[in-house]
Design goal:
This protein is an alpha/beta fold. It has nine helices and six strands, in the order βααβαβαβαβαβααα. A three-stranded parallel β-sheet has the order 1-2-3, with helices on one face. Strand 4, helix 5 and strand 5 form a beta-alpha-beta unit.
Length: 155
C-alpha cells in the first residue's frame, strides 16, 4: 500500500520498482496526482497488472485495514502522518530515514527503516515484510509490537 498525494516526493517510483523483485505482490496507490509516468514505468517493468490507482480518499484507514505492508520511500517528509496511520492499523511499514516519523517506526519495531535513497535495501525490506503480512507467518509478532502494551512499554 502507498498513500500520498505528492507521488514524486513520496517515492512512488521506488514502490513500483520494488514490484519487480516482490513476486506476486500487488501495489494499491491511494492519492491524487498525475499517473501517466508511473503507469509507463509499471508497463516497462511488466508489473502494470499489479498496480492499482484508486485516487484520493477522505478515508485512508479503509485501505490500511486491507494492507499487508505500507510503503513510504519518501525523499523528504518532516513527519509522515501516514506512517502513524499504518501503525494504528497494525500494518508494518517500510520507509526511508528521510521520513520524520521513521524514528517512531524504528523505536516501536513497527517496520523497517532503510537509509534514504538505498533502493536495494528498500526492495529487500519489501520482500522481507511481504512474508509478514496478514497472511504471512510474522503477522502476530508485528501486531504484538504495535499493541498498546508493546508501544507503551506496559504503562
Amino acid at each position: 500500500l502507498f498513500v500520498g498525494n505528492d507521488f514524486e516526493r513520496k517515492g512512488l517510483k521506488d514502490c513500483i520498482q520494488a514490484l519487480g523483485v516482490a513476486r506476486g505482490a500487488h501495489l494499491v496507490v491511494v492519492g491524487a496526482g498525475p499517473r501517466d509516468s508511473y503507469l509507463r514505468q509499471a508497463a516497462e517493468l511488466g508489473v502494470e497488472d499489479r498496480v492499482t490507482f484508486v485516487g484520493g480518499t477522505s478515508e485512508p484507514e479503509r485501505y490500511f485495514r486491507g494492507a499487508d505492508v505500507f510503503l513510504l520511500p519518501t525523499k523528504e517528509d518532516p513527519w509522515g502522518l501516514t506512517l502513524i496511520e499504518a501503525m494504528a492499523a497494525g500494518v508494518p511499514a517500510v520507509t526511508f530515514e528521510a521520513a520524520g516519523a521513521s524514528v517512531v517506526v524504528r523505536d516501536a519495531r513497527a517496520g523497517i527503516v532503510v537509509p534514504s535513497g538505498d533502493r536495494a535495501a528498500f526492495q529487500a525490506a519489501v520482500v522481507r515484510l511481504g512474508g509478514t503480512g496478514r497472511r504471512g507467518p510474522g503477522w502476530r509478532a508485528w501486531t504484538a509490537a504495535l499493541a498498546w502494551q508493546g508501544i507503551g512499554g506496559g504503562t
